[in-house]
Each structure stands twice: as C-alpha cells, then as structure tokens.
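hey all, quick one before standup. I had two proteins in the batch that finished overnight and I want to keep them in one place so we stop losing track of which output belongs to which input. First protein below, input sequence then structure tokens straight from the run.
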Amino acid sequence: MKRWLLVIPVALLLGLGVLGAYQLMQPDDESFVAKADRSAPERAFPLLDAPEQEISFATPPGDGPVMVNLFASWCAPCRAEHGDITSLAEEFPGQVYGLAYKDAPEATRAFLEELGNPFEQIGVDPSGQGGLDFGLTGVPETFVISEDGQIILHVRGPLDVERSQQVAEALGG
C-alpha cells in the first residue's frame, strides 16, 4: 500500500512536465509581434562591404520608416524567412536594411550570394552588442523604425506571411 503513495507524486510531476512541454510548444503567436515605442539604438554599425563607412538607425536613412532585420548565416530560421524579406524589399524599395549579427563577413557574403541580397545596406555587429541595444532576444528579429528614430514594431522570430503583412503596414504607414 505504501508503494502506491510514492507513485502519486511521481505521476503528478510527470503530468505537470507534459503540460508544461505542451504549453512551450504552443506559444501565443501574438507575443512574437509587439508594438514598440522606444528609441532605436545610437550605435553606428560598420557596413559589410565598406567597413570604413557606418550606418546608424537612430536617424534612419531615407524619408520614411525603415525595416532592420537582424540575421546570421548560421541561423536556419533566417534562411526560412529570406523569401519574405525579399518580397518586402521589392514592395518597399530603399526601406529594407540588414544587420549581420555575430557573423563573419565572409559567411554573410556567402549567405547573401546564395540566397540573394534584398537589403539596401547591411551593417555588421560582430560582438552582438548592437543587437542587445536593439533588444534582441535571438536571431532572426525584425524592427521597424520610424523616420524620427523610434522603434514602432518588433517582430521576434522569422517572418512569415502574417508577420510580413504587419511589417508592410508599419512601413507603409
């Protein structure tokens, strides 16, 4: 009889573990797209193909909002979202920028040579500090920055059709 009493706590723990794992596998998709209202980082990033030049998103280039996608060649979800980024770049010419996060320049160039380069310009963040300044939790992530340097949309994880639509609305508005 006493042995059965030992099974009850083990069964409860196992049940809670299964429930927790299920919840982790079924995240609320809305938590991955957030309206933001904070300043873009002041940090300037060297350009991939012209390291003597820099780009800063605190004062975004161009006349309207811009999208900044933080990506890396070693990131599988970055490959998966590349087509969506290319579509956005075609729809919003001059508004789509990239930031290579903790990636070797040669690897970034090979990645873009293989998949195509949809970005207007690409900054490099070899130490990862710039990504942290943005509020990055893991690549890929996409930020839409208003013309006055405010982050107005933050997309965690890879872009898909629905998330790309939200980015397009922010870029167009």
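OK second protein, same deal, sequence then tokens:
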Amino acid sequence: MPYKLVALDVDGTLLNDDHVMTEQNMQTVMEAARQGIEIVLCTGRGPQNTIPFLEKMGLGGYVISHNGAATVEVETGNIVHQFAMDHMALTPFMEYCREKGVHFDINTAFGMYVDSVDALAGPIRYMYEKFLMLPSNLPAWEELEGPVVKFTAFGESHDLDEVFREWSQWTPVYNMLRSGEFFIDLMHEEASKGNALKQLAARRGYKPEEILAIGNYYNDITMLTFAGLGIAMDNSPVEVKAAANEITLSNNEDGVHAALMKYCLK
C-alpha cells in the first residue's frame, strides 16, 4: 500500500531522549516528503514548539497539537479545528493540584498559563525550558485569547500515578490520559490524536489505509489504531506495542528512519 500521509509523534518518537531530531531521522522524513508523502506531526506539545521542527526541514502542512485538541496550519498559523473544553469544570482539578502541591498549566491553542511564572523553579522550570515553551501568568478566564483546550498536571511519575488513580474515581468530565511519564492531560471528551487525524484525513481526502502513524506512548494509541499501519517505537510501553501493527527501533536508534525506509521510501 502506498502511504500518502505519515503522522509522527514528536517526543519519544521523532526526537531521541536528548530531545534532538537526529540528522538521519530528519533526512529520511525530508526524503519521504520529496517523494510526495504528506508529513503531519501529532504531539502533546503546542503549535509554537512543534512547528519549528517542520520549518527546520523546509516542510509546511499541518500539526496536530495538544494531543489532538488543536490542529493548526503551519504556513498561516490558522486553527483548522479545536476541541474547546468547559473550563469552568476545571475548578476542582485546580483546587486539588493547589492543595496537593501538584504543578499544572492551562493551554489554549497558542497560549500556556500557570498560577505564577515567578514561582517556577528547579525541575518545573527546566521542563518548560526543555520543551522550548515558557508560560505566562494565568489571567481571568474572560481574558484568555481563545478557548481552553488542555489542562496538564506535571510531577514525579509515582506522584502522578496516585493523582491519576484518584481522578479516575471522579465522575468523568474530560478525556484524561497519561501523555508521558511525568504528565497527565485533561481535554474535551472527544479530543484525541486519533479523532484529530481522522478529521484531517477527511479534509485532505485520505483513507485510513493510506495513512501510516508512528508513536510511543498511551496518547498515541488512538492514532495508531486509526491509521492503516500503526507503528510503535521499541521504547513504547507494552500496551502501546500491543495496539500497533508493527514495532520499529527505539527513538535512540532512529526508529522513525527505519520505519520510513521499510514502509514508505522507494
């Protein structure tokens, strides 16, 4: 099957553990694009710290950001689609985090907000610097530019395990998922990488069997199962590997390069 669209997760997939896109991965993705394959980055990141990876490769098109909550056109910055959350229902989650000392941020399509930027320090500040995104102070709800699309809690893995366990016992309001070892995301109940990819595929005129998707974590499962061929990285949890059709090398072994060479490039 000749694939017409390749959906790539970013952290843990396209990037290695040093958060670097290697030259080999970059050149192979660029070659796939030269051969007519549309490249779409699908990530938990926002557009601002995702689009530069495509620009570095000289590519345009679209990014599916915030784990599917907002799809953005690269060249124009236009929001093609977004799943707006009921931000008022976030109040108990915010109160829980403040009481328990769990850091959180609130995201619109292009904005990221925390209680106090001046209070950011240590691992929390390093996390934002590592992901190339410094937040702003959270204003009043009515002053936000655009709807809220994602709420993210950040902390040590064992602490978030407990948070996830407790929130799972609450009445479901949002789509809650682990988007990384140190993150829990809350989004609109219909927001996911798979749903966003489905909408973009319909917009672009692609059938699921014409799509190849590569990812490494729980937030990638919906896009791996939507695509005609879903490929999990070798560094994926066992549940992600089980949801995929194939497994490639790890993100530290240029697994994206290996997968594209095997399934896409002539």
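Flagging for whoever picks this up: DSSP finds ten helices and 14 strands in the chain. The first strand starts at residue 5 and ends at 8.
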